[in-house]
Specification:
Layout: H1 6-12, H2 17-32, H3 37-55, H4 60-78, H5 91-114, H6 119-134, H7 139-154
Helix pairs in contact: 2-5, 2-6, 3-4, 3-5, 3-7, 4-6, 4-7, 5-6
């Protein structure tokens, strides 16, 4: 996990090599699922929303903000190219990829609980896995994923485990004079 920034490397040092290896395996398993870039980002958004809505109900905003910071730090370090907008994505594969992420994280966290790992180590593990996945994308994609995950958590019709679609076309075009600014999704903080 040498692609992580120093802060994350320091936080992960307390977790141990075995857990780091499991995290690497989970990321490889997720990467092996054949998905378009848009489908992969949707699977990540669904997993992030599920984690935020089930494990961090009262601190959902803090979890998403921490993930945004860590993912953007990794993204800026690696300098990834923006993902290409692909063709149709298969909902079954997005669900499968999302299940791989959530199930893999649950397995890692159960092993950490059995080993007596502190709760903040488990939080760092979740953040590190998701930040590493998101950090492979450009800052705009990171923003789109976390905005979609945040919206899903706020939507009373959305349920944990449901897919969270991410559209790479959203906000892809420059603003014009006649655009309705009130209808645009937030693009960050000033």
């Amino acid at each position: 996990m040498t692609d992580l920034p120093p802060l994350l490397l320091e936080a992960l040092s307390a977790i141990g090599a075995e857990t780091e290896a499991r995290m690497g395996d989970l990321i490889e398993d997720f990467g092996a699922v054949p998905l378009s870039e848009q489908g992969r980002l949707s699977a990540i958004a669904g997993a992030v929303a599920t984690i935020a809505a089930t494990r961090y109900v009262q601190h959902r905003g803090i979890f998403l903000a921490a993930l945004r910071c860590w993912a953007l730090e990794i993204s800026m370090t690696l300098g990834p190219a923006p993902p290409r907008v692909g063709g149709e994505r298969c909902a079954e594969r997005v669900d499968e990829a999302q299940d791989i992420l959530l199930g893999g994280l649950d397995t890692i966290l159960r092993a950490m609980v059995a080993a007596g790992s502190a709760k903040h180590h488990r939080l760092v593990t979740e953040l590190a896995v998701m930040a590493r996945l998101l950090g492979r994308y450009d800052p705009r994609s990171v923003h789109l994923v976390l905005t979609a995950a945040g919206r899903a958590c706020e939507d009373p019709a959305w349920q944990s485990g449901d897919e969270v679609p991410v559209s790479l076309c959203e906000n892809a075009f420059p603003l014009t004079r006649d655009v309705d600014i009130a209808a645009l999704a937030p693009r960050g903080t000033a």
